């Protein structure tokens, strides 16, 4: 394999293109069904989703859309891990996950498939991160934290050791989560409290 294709032509895809090139691979095709997008960082955008290569990365920030595309295309690409991240040899990282610059992942943590572990976030020892999770820039997860599938951990948030966050949750920007979070809830503030739908 010497090239990797990119599904999605958003700002997040720009960061992924940078990551792919940093790892020494070439960019294959860039795909996006939005006909308004014709170029991304100088790469031509292909609008036809036929013949997507198995060695493609889903560069879409929305967790549910990323999951839908992963189910549709059954991709085979291993995780892309930025050379300037600190990933324990005793951790496991699922296929299709991206680990951006400045990330720390400590011993015995398990990260699922098609996750985004974003710039400068920190995942400490023995965490379990489900598939399709996004850990935003500068979020900090203490030891033994668990995050359920498709949850979004907001920028600069902190999660106390041992806390379990359910599936499809949103942890707001800057939130401090000190108690377990049930599936589907949005948590904001310090200490983190449920943001009720109006
Ligand atoms: C590289 C990247 O860009 S990665 C992307 C990183 N981005 C993030 O992490 C964003 C995370 N998202 C947030 O924090 C969002 O504000 C959410 C999801 C928590 C809430 O979004 P919305 O549902 O649209 O809420 P909305 O903006 O309407 O605000 C609703 C109320 O919650 C409050 N609120 C919203 N976000 C927060 C927050 N992070 N902390 C505290 N209060 C908040 C608002 O002040 C508002 O309060 P009010 O009703 O008293 O005026």
UniProtKB/TrEMBL annotation:
CDD domains: LbH_AT_putative. InterPro entries: AcTrfase_PglD-like (IPR020019), Hexapep (IPR001451), PglD_N (IPR041561), Trans_hexapeptide_repeat (IPR050179), Trimer_LpxA-like_sf (IPR011004). Belongs to the transferase hexapeptide repeat family. Gene3D superfamilies: 3.40.50.20, Hexapeptide repeat proteins. It comes from Sphingobacterium daejeonense. Residues 4-71 form the PglD N-terminal domain. This is Acetyltransferase. Pfam families: Hexapep, PglD_N.
